[in-house]
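Hi there, hope your week has been kind to you so far. Do you reckon you could talk me through the fold, stretch by stretch? Thanks so much in advance, here it is.
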Amino acid sequence: MTVSRIVTTDEFKKMISYKVYAENHEQQQSLKLQLLKEVEAAYGERYWRLKEGTRKAIDMLCWFASERGFVFAKDEYLSDRYEVSTKTVRNVLKILREAGVISTVYRRSSTQNCRTAPVHLFTAHPYYKYWENMLDLRDFQNDCQNETAEKPYESKEEQPKNVPTKYLSFNKNLLKTLRKQDRLNSSFTPKNVPGEFVKTAKPFFDDAEEIHDLWKKAALVYRQFDLLHELEQYTELVIDALKQSVYTLKHRKIRKDFKGYFYGTLLKMFTYQKRQETFSSHPSIFNWLEEQEEESAGSTKNWRTEIQELMAKDERKLDYLIEELPY
């Protein structure tokens, strides 16, 4: 069911702030399965012949919609998360609209000719009647049908020419291209960023602003530790963190933001560096450990081995915490 209804900003704020229907996870899961059954009924036997990524995308749509009866996740989000094409996602939504499983309205925008990201309302959700009344979807559909029925047939000569509106609504890909033309490549990176770091980041981020932002992340983490040297002397450490983050990104293991993951990797590596400097420069710790080593001369482990094991154990714990960060 397609409804060319534009949802105002105030209406959309009211929708996303409305109370969640399911009170707990069990109720939300139950409602998701109920919506999923409607989708399976719309597809019939074809549903189980869909690719796994497509079914997972549909499952996520139902999970999002179980809260308030609608979902406004973009096609690109589902496409990137489940490794399917945006065309596949759009085809799924088209089939569900034609089957009456969802009704689609659009959010208002001042830059997209008053029409931007769609909002999909699931008709089987208990809140659908509420949204239908609030947005006057039933009256809106009737008005559209009446205008279509009463429109007289005219000859092609009498029909007014359509006025192009391209200047009101840019194609997204074209807009991205135009924005890229104004960007500066890596050669314009500020001089406070070491050349070695720029050279390493250039194949992946050939943009002066992006590379500068990554270095600012390193400076932000560096200021949290009282290290012995200036940040520039830890350039190799920052480059190593960047390489690890890019490797993880290429293997699709970063769930959200790359810069956030890069920040977490830097935090882990600077923590390890701080520990190394502390143990190597603190005389009291060194002397105490030397005494312990003399007392346990017959032991197979000296104090350096024990410290390395403790540091490795702490590092494994830190790795676990980094993975749990919502980046």
